[in-house]
């Protein structure tokens, strides 16, 4: 099976194909690339497989997974295509690497956070957890997608308190939505803009490590 994405993979130092590892699928923001996300996840390199995907569409000097009509308004056709491509890639990578199917995590910033939350709602129990950094859930996902039960989904949501692109109210709305849908939700805000701070990185790294340990299959 061919892969629908260009990607970087970071395997644990003592990687053993016979062992099943928790795995993070990392999705970058608009106009960025896969290398940007790998830099955020260095704290996981000992115990996790980390796979960072490059968006398949060009966006300035970088890439995107979908284009937008305006802030908060993705081009629906491209968004839907990315959702299917991402699910296909997760299945591809699970077959190629020693991925534990019971400990698959989605982590994304901005556009990547939008997709991480949306894809978790679509895939349901096939995803163990998500880390959503400064994103939102499109209205059409909530109203038109066939959303799966996510009561056992582990959710870490964070948002910048002075984000000039996605206001903090969007992070509050993400939290309110998932608090109703899941039994395992963490929400943190930071005195930052549209970015990932050192404290944010530290917090989600520890959260992922702890969740993976308590979720061994």
From TrEMBL:
Instruction: Tell me the keywords, alphabetical order.
Output: Hydrolase
- A Pfam match is Abhydrolase_2
Per the database record, which ranges form the Phospholipase/carboxylesterase/thioesterase domain? 22-197
> Is Hydrolase given among the entry's keywords?
yes
Q: Which SUPFAM superfamilies match?
A: alpha/beta-Hydrolases
GO MF terms here are: hydrolase activity
Tagged with keyword Ribosomal protein: no
Give the protein family.
Belongs to the AB hydrolase superfamily. AB hydrolase 2 family.
Name of the featured protein: Phospholipase
Organism of derivation: Paenibacillus abyssi
């Amino acid at each position: 099976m061919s892969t629908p994405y260009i990607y970087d993979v970071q395997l644990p130092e003592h990687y053993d194909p016979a062992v099943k590892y928790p795995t993070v699928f990392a999705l970058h923001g608009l106009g960025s690339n896969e290398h940007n996300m790998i830099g955020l996840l260095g704290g996981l390199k000992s115990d996790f497989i980390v796979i960072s995907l490059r968006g398949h569409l060009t966006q300035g000097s970088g890439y995107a997974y979908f284009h937008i009509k305006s802030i908060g308004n993705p081009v629906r056709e491209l968004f839907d295509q990315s959702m299917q491509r991402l699910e296909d890639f997760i299945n591809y990578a699970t077959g190629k690497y020693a991925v534990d199917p019971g400990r698959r995590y989605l982590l994304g910033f901005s556009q990547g956070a939008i997709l991480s939350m949306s894809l978790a709602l679509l895939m349901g129990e096939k995803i163990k957890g998500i880390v959503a950094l400064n994103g939102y859930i499109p209205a059409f996902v909530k109203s038109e997608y066939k959303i799966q039960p996510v009561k056992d989904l582990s959710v870490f949501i964070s948002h910048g308190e002075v984000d000039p692109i996605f206001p903090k109210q969007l992070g509050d709305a993400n939290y309110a939505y998932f608090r109703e849908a899941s039994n395992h939700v963490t929400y943190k805000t930071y005195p930052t803009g549209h970015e990932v701070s050192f404290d944010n990185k530290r917090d989600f790294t520890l959260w992922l490590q702890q969740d993976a340990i308590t979720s061994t299959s």
